[in-house]
Amino acid sequence: MERFYHITTYGCQMNVHESEKIAGILAELGYKACENIEDADIAVFNTCCIRENAENHAFGNIGMLKKLKSKKRDMIVAVGGCLTQQIGKADILHEKFPYVDIIFGTHNLNKLKEYILKKQKQKKAIIEIEDSEGIICEEDKPLRTSYPNAWINITYGCNNFCSYCIVPYVRGRERSRRSENIIAEAKALIEDGYKEITLLGQNVNSYNNGTDDISFPELLQKIAALDGKFRLRFMTSHPKDFSEELAKVIAANDKICNNVHLPVQSGSNAVLAAMNRKYTAENYLQKVEILKKYVPDCAITTDLIVGFPNETDEDFEATLKLVKEVGFSSAFTFVYSRRNGTVAAKMDGQIPEEVSKQRIMRLVELVNSQTREQSAKYVGRTVEILCEDFDKKKGLYLGRDEHGRMAYFESQNSVIGEFVNVKITAANGVSLTGEIVKE
Ligand code: 5AD
Ligand code: SF4
Fold first, then answer.
1. At what angle do helices 13-28 and 112-121 cross, to 10 degrees?
2. Rg for the chain (alpha carbons), in Å?
3. Residue among 218, 217, 204 nearest 176 (CA)
4. CB under 8 Å to 17, separation ≥6 — which residues?
5. What is the pLDDT of residues 368-410, one digit of tens each?
6. What ligand 1 atom has the least distance to the C-alpha of 332?
7. C-alpha dihedral over 72, 73, 74, 79, to 10 degrees?
8. Taking CB atoms and a 6 Å cutoff, what residues make up the pocket around ligand 1?
9. Separation between Cα atoms, residue 336 and residue 345, nearest integer Å
10. HSE of 397 in the Cβ direction (CA atoms, 13 Å)?
């Protein structure tokens, strides 16, 4: 009899890739993917807790499963990821949702197979949250779902302790995978037909800090030197560790996309200091200048937070000023979310919701206007697009250029996974539309 799995993923690319690893484990156990959770024999929630709304979203969805689970008693419900790893949260989850069968932490992913096999034989819920600092699992066999792109973890965890951020508490200390394993994984993926490799880490720039292995720019160089036509991306870069050497490596290798995600968070030095970001707005602008010097057409994207404790109107204006100065090609904008256990959660001067709302609206407007302006410049140009998917609603194929800009276009036959030249005919805000041009 066929058995099915359903995975709900919350949060970042790191989690998206982790869900591919979960899918790999479930496939090994003989489960197949299904679209609707109602058809699942096992439902996994891979949670995130970086902001309160991500956490609430997961809680809401797990809560909604009560009815289904009462009808489908044999269904296994498992909850993993960052939410469960917070101190005390596993017990709260268990109390609130006693029908959840397996609760596992971020360091327990490699034991999921064991938990499922155990749960198939016992009634009692399994709750395992390990407080590990150093696990690196090289045995993962992810079931990749984002062809032609493939994610590869290069580091896990984070040592930076930005004062607002919960990641170091739920993902543990920073540790790097051995470069030979990463390079071998990239090589195998390219030989398998993947056309884009994205290296993942909370702070890729500090890859191998303090070890005898190669540095991040050296790693990039080695992967870029592999045979085949493919694109190489990486995220995320912490500005404090972004080096001139890295800018030079990007410039020297065509396969490395001219697109860097460099989260600035704020343009105010007082806020940056309180955030424990370890750079000033001036330092950040210098790094941008270095990057632009070596890679003039580099698309820089960023993350921004408004409403950090004690953020004044002047601080916020400084953020707007920096955004204008850099000219980000796009940005993720967030309202500060108070996370228990972080340093900022204990700070006085929490900003009223209404003020944060006003600020985020102004910031989003500015970012969008910059994105629109940059999109408009594409019209009339021919760009190389790596086709990723087909949009059924629009009836158009879609993909990105090396700067990460999305373009839609028509094609008679499937070109998913192919590089195509597209002449851009219109810009619609963030995305572009165009026509394939034959060489
Ligand atoms: N509140 C709002 N945004 C946050 N981020 C991290 N923690 C918080 C928080 N507590 C944002 C940062 C980071 C991105 C991944 O999420 O901008 O770069
Ligand atoms: Fe969080 Fe800062 Fe680490 Fe990024 S660098 S994961 S924002 S603590």
1. 50
2. 22
3. 204
4. 142, 151, 153, 200
5. 999 999 999 999 999 999 999 999 999 999 999 999 999 999 9
6. 17
7. 90
8. 50-51, 164-165, 263, 265, 303, 305, 334, 336-337, 339
9. 10
10. 23
